[in-house]
Amino acid sequence: MNNVQLLPQPAAPTTSTTYKPVELYIFIDPLCPKAFAMKSILRKLQLQYEHYFTWRYVLSTELSALNSVTNRLKGCCGGDELDIAHPVLPSIAIKAAELQGKRAGSRYLTKLQQYAVLKTKNVNSHATLLEIAEEVGLDMNEFAIDFGSKEAARAFQCDLYITREMDVDDVPSIVFFNECIEDEGLKVSGSYQYEVYEHILEEMLGEELVSQPIPSIEDVFKRYELLTTEEIAEIFSVDYAIAERELKKRMLQQKIERITNEDVTLWRLK
């Protein structure tokens, strides 16, 4: 596999209260279709092997005019009703959400991607990004302040710095680090089959993986809320037709409902 590279450990790796020997740095452009396609693989890894690893997203979209946009954001957060839109805003919004905790940031990213896939509203709009924050239950006063703060902008700039330092020029990419800080990380550029990531995780651990059983479809929806047919097929290792049949069966039983547009079909619990 040509797109695998060894890298030094980051200067300040993240920590977890529960001991997990592997850490994943997941480099994404949050609104790129490739990032959406990677989600099913990451979700299956979480469901089967999350007891082995922690993870963090690194936003890797190269964008210009960050300072000028941040200054305009301050005006919006200070009571200016004029909405603005810019491709940098979703990334800053994600970092602002992360200031309320990793889980808050993850919920925000997931909902942002749902909005982007459904294409019902402009996700580059400041007003839409505030709406997403409210929908995922963030502290709105705190989010509005953080959205226009230097801290959120610097957090995004830090992600871009990490991307450059690790020579990540293809997104999505994943860098695997083990518990030994002297060991180099393993960078996997691009997207591969699920079994490739499974094998790398096993190699990093140096032992045979023990997987957790995949929960029921209903429990998977309770954790991830909205899923595509492709994601269900990936998670349960079945053909697309089988996944679609199982989803339609549950729709007829009024357990789930379907949301569609011209490009995508999403499913969620009723």
TrEMBL record:
S-adenosyl-L-methionine found in the keyword field: no
Principal subcellular localization: cytoplasm
Keyword Cytoplasm: yes
GO cellular component, one term: cytoplasm
InterPro entries per the UniProt record, alphabetical: Adapter_SpxH (IPR046404), Thioredoxin-like_sf (IPR036249)
Pfam families given in the database record: Thioredoxin_5
One MF term in the entry's GO annotations: isomerase activity
Location(s), subcellular: Cytoplasm
Record keywords, A-Z: Cytoplasm, Isomerase
Similarity comment: family membership: Belongs to the SpxH family.
Oligomer and partners: Interacts with Spx.
Function: Adapter protein required for efficient degradation of Spx by ClpXP under non-stress conditions. Interaction with Spx stabilizes Spx and exposes the C-terminus of Spx for recognition and proteolysis by ClpXP.
Protein's recorded name: ClpXP adapter protein SpxH
